[in-house]
Design brief:
about 375 residues; alpha/beta; two-stranded antiparallel sheet; 17 helices; 12 strands
């Protein structure tokens, strides 16, 4: 399949599956335990129907939104994800460039394979820095100071990953970073020589945000040990409140799922939250962000910006979330599969398809701007 033939998420997923070694494809595609929440994330949108208006004069449609003080040309953004140069040698560079071209937000992860400073230079658009809370409080302070110095406008703390999820697909192949594959995993890598050629003929993958702490070459610490040894499961609301005060700017918590936690986030001065179950990769059996969205917007939507991610594959999914009150919607696998399949052209193709789908759906809904989407446009079965 050629990139021009890709018309949707499923096409990109298939293209990525044909290019990537099985262990890496399953690292992107997989989730925790029985992967119930992973499937539920997309299925949740199917229980909600759109009710369009007609004859509303929708020749011109404005897709822009403002979230956490950032003006986005699209109501979707590229959620920060780890290890992107493992999927394609361009990695975060491709995502930053594509997001900049489409005027939307992207993020660099603590486990990103390009430095947040380099990504900032590639795209002058809105950027978030997604980081984890470490046992080393000095490291936490240094990471925030580095992001502030680089001019990153939004800090995003992931709060649902104090330990790694049970991702059984990775266990079956022995997938780990650095690579410690079993025979099955090695055989699957051997079946994709083009990926190996790409991987070994480009610069060595590193973790610039953590280069003094995690060694991708197999020395100091593996990614799995990073989660079990460096992250602090004792993280508390008091710890986060201190970070919010230190940052003194747009601060977002990613992984909030309850009304009580959303209220607490507002109380300590957060300016945004992302409803997220980490794409089903952490706690299997957890509720979908879309199903939690309405009650959390009702509880805190006037105090901070509520966003969501998880299972978004279509422009109509985005419209349903926006109509419930989300300020913007995060994309994850939706752009990772095209990144893996074709690098920057793949990410641009995916964002263009999403832009076209949202614009078309807005016109068919009879809405000229995102603010015109309301709950009266939805019916739940």
């Amino acid at each position: 399949m050629h990139l021009r033939q890709c018309q949707n998420f499923h096409d990109f997923r298939l293209m990525a599956r044909r290019r990537l070694p099985g262990p890496i494809f399953n690292y992107i595609d997989g989730a925790a335990d029985d992967e119930t929440t992973y499937r539920r994330n997309t299925a949740a949108f199917e229980s909600c129907d759109l009710v369009p208006d007609v004859l509303r004069g929708v020749a011109d449609v404005d897709l822009s939104v403002t979230v956490m003080g950032q003006k986005l040309a699209l109501p979707v953004y590229c959620s920060p994800t780890a290890l992107q140069r493992l999927f394609h040698h361009q990695g975060e560079r491709a995502v930053a460039a594509a997001a900049g071209k489409y005027g939307t937000m992207f993020g660099v992860s603590s486990l990103g394979t390009v430095s947040l400073e380099e990504a900032r230079k590639i795209s002058g658009g809105p950027q978030v820095y997604q980081f984890y809370f470490h046992k080393d409080r000095g490291l936490n302070r240094d990471m925030m100071a580095r992001a502030k110095e680089a001019g990153v406008p939004v800090m995003m703390l992931t709060v649902d990953s104090i330990t790694g999820g049970n991702r059984e697909r990775d266990k079956r192949t022995g997938f780990a970073i650095p690579f410690r594959l079993n025979l099955s995993g090695i055989a699957q890598f051997a079946a994709r020589p083009a990926w190996a050629l790409n991987y070994f003929t480009h610069e060595r993958i590193a973790l610039p945000q953590l280069d003094d702490h995690v060694d991708m070459g197999g020395g100091a610490m593996s990614i799995s040990r990073y989660f079990t040894e460096m992250l602090d499961p004792a993280m508390s609301w008091d710890d986060v409140a201190a970070m919010v005060r230190q940052w003194d700017g747009q601060f977002c918590l990613k992984g909030v799922m309850s009304v009580e936690d959303a209220k607490r986030a507002a109380d300590i001065g957060c300016t945004g939250i992302v409803l997220s179950n980490h794409g089903g990769r952490q706690l299997d059996g957890s509720r979908s962000a879309f199903d939690q969205l309405a009650e959390i917007v009702d509880a805190v939507g006037d105090r901070l910006d509520v966003m969501m991610d998880g299972g978004v594959q279509r422009g109509t999914h985005v419209l349903k979330a926006l109509a419930l009150g989300a300020k913007a919607v995060g994309l994850g696998r939706y752009y990772l599969f095209p990144l893996a399949a074709a690098g920057q052209p793949g990410v641009e193709r995916a964002l263009e398809l999403m832009r076209v789908e949202i614009e078309r759906a807005m016109k068919l809904m009879g809405c000229k701007s995102i603010s015109e989407l309301t709950r009266r446009h939805l019916r739940f079965r």
